[in-house]
Specification:
The complex is a heterodimer of chains A (83) and B (563). By secondary structure, chain A is an all-alpha fold. Chain A has 3 helices and no strands. The longest helix of chain A is centred in the N-terminal third of the chain and has 15 residues. In chain B, helix 11 packs parallel to helix 12 and helix 15 crosses helix 16. Classes of the chains: A mainly alpha (83), B alpha/beta (563). Chains A and B meet through helix 1 and helix 2 of A and helix 11, helix 16 and strand 27 of B.
């Protein structure tokens, strides 16, 4: 299954708009280091990605380091879903 | 002393699993009681060879590793004093972390730093003390002789409470205090060999260290361990383990009740929670909303409402002061909000729909007592809020190497917690406030001064003009807001705000829910000319500084109980 990087960026931005009110971010914005995302938001964003992309990710598919930027997140999703 | 008790447990059930270590990507590994004992014996041998002597402080960094048990117990075996410190998180600035750690290592006179094998790769803690990995210790070539014969009054461990300035204040706990606490707390919870604990809590926090590590070890209770770093991304993994391993006890800070319920609301496989007999809400203010939300969401998965419990705890008292149990479940009061605000007295409301809902943290542990005093030093009547003072057989004797803090620490045997609360007519403790300006986020105690100093170090922030305060979040904890003044052109404000958002987590590992820049002299001051946290907080929540972050609750904060 194909996941577009742009789709991931949009899901992230929708999450930030609804929770923190920051953004919009680009594909290379550091989400954690720049304070857009905190630990309370990781699980929620993970669930939103699953829902929006219509996939069920296995346990441990997304760990905090995978949320470094939308691009890193996209690469990880492609690796998990493609596998 | 601790090892004598552990040895009895090892002899009784050597093959029982003591720790089941779960890594979401790396699978599971277990250690039986016999294996933990053998690992401690080897580690003690290796530590002795490294020159560790009774009374030395041994620092452990890297909490999620199956060999941590052996390394920690090995230090105790040698009569050394282990202290577990927070590891660097993904976003903290490594140089800032190293600088703070370096100060702490010299303050406690650490003779050795033990690291998880992951941290050992490519990182060297500051200072010239020696370093070893947990795994290399527990695989040491030679087992130690008999454990050091510790006296009951000898220090067993040092606990550096989590938070921003916590690092400078180590709580010393002796063998006697830790064992006495375990006995009292275990009795209240009716801990026994039929129990299984699941935990994701960091071990540098009292709830992780005492409730989930030391106490279960002494009672022969297996613990299923998750990494705190992995857990935040996969919170339901903890509840999936309940069905798999027949877990009976879990400790969580208030926000985790909301986080788990929120995550379950977004879907997921069915859970089997019937084995849970206690889910304990502790370490930050308890909200009735979080408890109800959790119950409602998980009752269809077999969770019993009777399993929801509360506890009032702090590192200075080893852990628990008061706790609820099946014989005395948490009480809930519906109080008149107007009477509460004007007289700080909890009077039953006529109309429960508009009442404040306060949850008790249970009754005092055997031998412990809580006093409530008013400003004039007199005893508060039942239901009247005042300062909470505590006394117990397991109260600490002081902070490590801090004579300045230890002078006059106890008055008539009572320790002034700084918390605010009351006792009801049934002896239940309600915690309704905390030390002035303290922010409690996800169970961590954050001091606004440290956050303000980090924010004020950002370029173009006017010197000394940063204010930080806590605001209630929908997730059931507090978030940190920082406001700074600047003389720079308003066009630069977004960039300055972004730098504040970056600097504070990098320095303190503290997230900001909002950071705003305002013009000079806009922030509210007290009569003495200092920035007033409370007044700026109210103005922020009213929208005076622009849009409030969406995840902030702007309605009057929900009622609180328990810390």
């Amino acid at each position: 299954m194909d996941v577009a990087l742009q789709a991931v960026v949009e899901i992230v931005n929708e999450h930030l708009r609804r929770t923190r009110g920051t953004g919009p971010v680009s594909s290379d914005t550091p989400l954690l280091a720049d304070g857009h995302l905190d630990s309370f938001g990781l699980a929620e964003l993970g669930a939103e990605l699953e829902k929006a992309l219509g996939v069920a990710l296995p346990a441990g598919a997304l760990l905090p380091e995978d949320f470094e930027s939308p691009r890193v997140l996209h690469q990880r999703l492609v690796a998990v879903i493609g596998a | 002393m601790l090892l004598r008790a552990l040895r009895r447990q090892v002899e009784r059930s050597p093959e029982r699993v003591s720790v089941r270590h779960v890594s979401l990507r790396g699978g599971e590994s277990t250690r039986t009681y016999a294996e933990v004992w053998a690992a401690a014996e080897r580690a003690a041998g290796a530590l002795g060879a490294l020159g560790v002597r009774p009374g030395d402080v041994v620092v452990l960094i890297g909490t999620h590793h199956p060999d941590l048990y052996g390394a920690w117990l090995g230090a105790v075996w040698c009569g050394a004093i282990p202290t577990i410190l927070a590891e660097p998180s993904v976003r903290i600035d490594r140089a800032e972390y190293a600088a703070r750690l370096g100060r702490l290592l010299s303050a406690v006179g650490a003779s050795l730093v033990l690291l998880s094998p992951e941290l050992m790769q490519g990182w060297q803690p500051p200072g010239d003390q020696r370093t070893a990995s947990y795994s290399e210790l527990v695989q040491g070539p030679r087992a130690a002789g008999e454990p050091h014969a510790a006296e009951s009054g000898d220090p067993l461990l040092l606990q550096h409470s989590s938070g921003t300035t916590g690092l400078q204040k180590g709580v010393v706990l002796t063998h006697r205090t830790v064992m006495t606490h375990a006995e009292a707390y275990g009795k209240v919870l009716e801990l026994g060999e039929q129990d299984v604990v699941a935990s994701w809590l960091p071990l540098y926090h009292d709830m992780g260290l005492i409730a989930c590590f030391v106490t279960p070890l002494l009672f022969g209770v297996p613990v299923v361990w998750f990494s705190p770093f992995e857990w935040v991304a996969e919170p339901l993994s903890l509840l999936h383990a309940v069905g798999t391993h027949r877990v009976s006890l879990i400790w969580l800070p208030n926000f985790a009740f909301c986080l788990l319920a929120d995550r379950a609301a977004k879907g997921g496989a069915a859970l089997s929670l019937g084995s849970l007999r206690a889910v304990v809400n502790c370490s930050e203010p308890v909200t009735a909303e979080a408890m109800d939300y959790f119950c409602e969401r998980f009752a269809p998965h077999g969770l019993s409402r009777a399993a929801l419990h509360t506890c009032y705890a702090m590192a200075e008292n080893v852990f628990g002061i008061a706790a609820s149990n099946s014989a005395a479940p948490p009480r809930r009061l519906y109080v008149d909000p107007a009477a509460w605000q004007t007289t700080q007295t909890a009077i039953d409301a006529a109309d429960t729909d508009r009442a404040l809902s306060l949850v008790s943290s249970g009754t005092c542990l055997p031998g412990a007592s809580v006093r409530v005093t008013l400003d004039d030093g007199t005893e508060a009547p039942p239901r009247r809020a005042g300062r909470l003072l505590i006394r117990s057989p397991f109260l600490f004797e002081g902070y490590f190497r801090r004579p300045d803090l230890n002078r006059g620490l106890l008055v008539d045997g009572y320790f002034d917690t700084g918390d605010v609360g009351f006792l009801d007519e049934h002896g239940h403790v309600y915690v309704t406030g905390r030390k002035k300006d303290l922010i409690i986020c996800g169970g961590r105690n954050l001091h606004p001064q440290d956050i303000e100093a980090a924010a004020a170090s950002v370029d173009a922030v006017y010197p000394g003009r940063a204010v930080a305060f806590g605001v209630p979040l929908r997730i059931g904890t507090e978030g940190v807001v920082v406001l700074v003044e600047s003389e720079a052109d308003a066009a630069r404000w977004p960039e300055i705000a972004a730098n504040v958002r970056r600097r504070v987590p990098a320095r303190l590992d503290v997230d900001l829910v909002d950071a705003k820049v305002v013009a000079r002299t806009v922030l509210k001051k007290s009569t003495s000319g200092k920035l007033a946290r409370g007044a700026n907080r109210r103005a922020y929540l009213e929208g005076s500084f622009g849009r409030v972050a969406p995840e902030v609750v702007t309605a009057p904060p929900p009622a609180r109980g328990g810390v």
